[in-house]
Design brief:
two-stranded antiparallel sheet, 10 helices, about 260 residues, elongated, single chain
């Protein structure tokens, strides 16, 4: 499995414009006003969620846009404000790569030995880096791509959550309840991997900060005893996907 970190200029631009109310630096407000004066209609469009249409373009160059839209994007990419955003994101990309490569062996061992997954050697996963001022952490499973950009809230934060998104890609064919799969991914990455990498910590909390989605806490608490047994099994014939299917069936029976 190969992880590729990259910046796609259009994805970076459109993702950043969609983060209403967040300014990575003071000049950003002037940039938004500049785009508005250039073309109000397209400026409004780019402040929605247009970055989603650039996922294909970031890897396959699939979509084609009309000349007016293309010219507006080109104009935005040439501004000094965008250049500042890009340079700051490039610096952040180097930080992320260094952290990932420091932890890569430990992460792969965790996925294979602890979670019992067979990592496909030919698989490539693209990590599309965005500015850390904007919260971005999403797996585009159909494209084997991840959008990532987030401030580092605690040690090895980015490694933990990039692995979280990688697990969404590796388990995308799971045919059970996706909420249960997500809860188990949180137990695996947000909790167990975090504790292993940092050599300290407890489940569900990092300092005073709660870990994970509150909507998943109830499921995670129910699964936790079985999860602890899974972690300490003597062999890894049972993968995390098989474990998830078993928990899916068990929780469905409890609801009946």
């Amino acid at each position: 499995m190969k992880i590729q970190f990259k910046i796609n200029k259009e994805y970076l631009l459109t993702h950043s414009l969609g983060q209403i109310g967040i300014t990575p630096f003071p000049e950003w407000v002037n940039f938004l006003n500049k785009l508005w004066k250039k073309n109000e209609e397209l400026s409004c469009l780019l402040q929605g969620r247009p970055h989603l249409i650039f996922i294909n373009n970031a890897t396959k160059k699939t979509y084609k846009f009309n000349a007016n839209f293309n010219n507006f994007i080109k104009y935005a990419l040439k501004t000094k404000e965008y250049n500042k955003l890009y340079l700051q994101t490039e610096k952040y990309l180097n930080f992320i790569k260094n952290q990932w490569y420091k932890n890569e062996t430990a992460v792969y061992n965790f996925l294979e030995q602890t979670l019992g997954l067979k990592l496909p050697p030919a698989k490539k996963i693209n990590i599309l880096i965005t500015h850390p001022s904007f919260k971005n952490g999403f797996a585009y499973t159909q494209h084997d791509s991840i959008g990532w950009g987030h401030k580092e809230e605690w040690k090895n934060y980015s490694t933990v959550y990039i692995t979280h998104e990688i697990l969404h890609i590796l388990t995308k064919k799971f045919n059970g309840d996706q909420e249960i799969m997500h809860a188990i991914i949180e137990l695996a990455c947000d909790n167990e991997l975090r504790i292993q990498l940092n050599k300290r910590g407890v489940y569900f909390k990092e300092g005073n900060q709660k870990i994970g989605h509150p909507s998943l806490y109830k499921i995670e608490r129910k699964i936790l005893p079985a999860w602890k047994k899974f972690l300490y099994q003597k062999d890894n014939k049972v993968s995390v996907i098989s474990f998830s299917l078993k928990q899916d069936k068990k929780l469905k029976k409890l609801k009946q």
